[in-house]
User: What shape does this take?
Amino acid sequence: MISVEDIRFAYRDEGGEQRLVLQGISTQIQPGESLAIMGANGSGKSTFVKCLNGLLVPYSGRVLVDGLDTASDEQLAAIRRRVGMIFQNPDNQIVSATVEREIAFGLENLGLSPDEMHARVEEMLQRFDLVPLRRKSPHYLSGGEKQRLALAAVLAMRPQYVILDEPTSLLDPQHRSDILEILRDWHRHEKIATLLVTQFADEAVHAQRLMIFHQGAIHIQGAPEAVFQQVQELERIGLEAPIAVFVKQLLGKH
Assistant: This one.
């Protein structure tokens, strides 16, 4: 379980003044849970998820990952084995010269045996439809192929939790659909917890729980279908419910 206990985080602006971004957030993310996060720009959602694997450390409160404290330098390696992260732009995390070497990179850092590493690379190439691209440079791949590779490289390390920070925002609709289907399939079969930060309501609706961030706090949370019923409040803070909700409400009025 990831336990978030009253965390606060602030950035310093150019004048040296602190700007509070997270304001006393507490929540828990259960093993195997599917969670989505939405919020307007500047609501604190990306800062929040970066606190979950120690990329950022709150100045007060704490984050525990299966009992490990993200503020402890000695525990960071173990935390990042448990919590994988996929960024909006896959170019920011791809480091190797070929597709198969990119998948193997993290496995080498885990110290796996050559046989185990080879087996996992082959499995990921197959599951993410990357076999024909295995010897290609990642930089020549399409946006959707790069994002599939980033997912494969992280999931090859078999984390217990995977955080995806707007992974489809730079993709066309077809590639968005492909990535989300891969993610849902992995969640169903591997039982890992997935935390998806998204700007698309039609992506969030598939999660078991939805958290809406506003001004550095969790403003609304619950099952997506319940959260999206609060249409007026979502509009007030700059978000929209799925079109199906509007249609349902319109039909109800008539």
User: Anything to note?
Assistant: The first strand starts at residue 2 and ends at 12. Residues 173-190 form the longest helix (18 residues). The chain has a mean pLDDT of 91.
